[in-house]
Amino acid sequence: MASIINQEIPEFSADAYVNGEFKTITSEDVKGNWAIFLFYPADFTFVCPTELEDMAAHYDELKGLGVEVYSVSTDTHFTHKAWHDSSDAIGKVQYPMIGDPTGKITRGFNVMIEEAGLAERGTFLVDPDGLIQVAEIHAGGIGRSAKDMLRKVKAAQYVRENDGEVCPAAWEAGQETLKPSLDLVGKI
Questions:
Q1: CA 42: distance to chain centroid?
Q2: Closest CA to 134 of 157, 107, 118
Q3: Angle at the Cα of 93 (from 144 to 80), degrees rounded to 5?
Q4: What is the pTM of this model?
């Protein structure tokens, strides 16, 4: 699989369910802000609602950092509304739930399970230029952590705003960063 880090997100236009309304969202709408794309296999399943609810619990903090979240599955926006209306967990979701029944967006991020017509559990952090900065794919039975993605958002934003600095493993906001240089080689 070729790396998609620093690659531009694919062009798309899709219908989404957002806070009681249907809305068209395009790749151009995403640019200019930070974004998380949270791909999941299907509505009305088991691990998926726990992940979307977990992300909903961190949504206000993410919005405060200038990040929009987009959940994406190959279901329709109509199915997203039905799930939102019938599930206590999904009822907490305020971020856009994009329907991708043709699989164009899912294929564009290279997370389509072709034989099933479903998305892998793919998570992507996109910078304001529309470039992918984090890409993760989990097996179907392994749920993701919004808290860890929040940490990665803060690290990516720090690196973007502080040229020449990098964030070490498990870095949290406020901790020391590294400034790679010849003097640092072999001293970590």
A1: 16
A2: 157
A3: 95
A4: 0.95
pLDDT category of residue 132 using cuts at 50, 70 and 90 = very high
Name 70's Cβ contacts closer than 8 Å, sequence gap at least 6.
16, 25, 30, 35, 36, 37, 38, 95, 96, 98
Distance CA 174, CA 126 (A): 22
Active-site entry in 18, 25, 30, 48: 48
Domains of the chain: 7-184 (3.40.30.10)
Identify the CA nearest to 92 among candidates 58, 45, 117: 58
Q: Is 167 a catalytic residue?
A: no
Question: Could you give the CA distance from residue 126 to residue 134 in angstroms, rounded to a whole number?
Answer: 7
DSSP letters, 16-43, are EEETTEEEEEEHHHHTTSEEEEEE-S-T
Mean local confidence (pLDDT), 89-101: 98
The Cα 88–Cα 163 span in angstroms is 43
CA distance 162 to 64: 19
pLDDT score of 185 more than 90: no
- Whole-number pLDDT of residue 161: 97
**Tokens at residue 180, please?**
């790679």
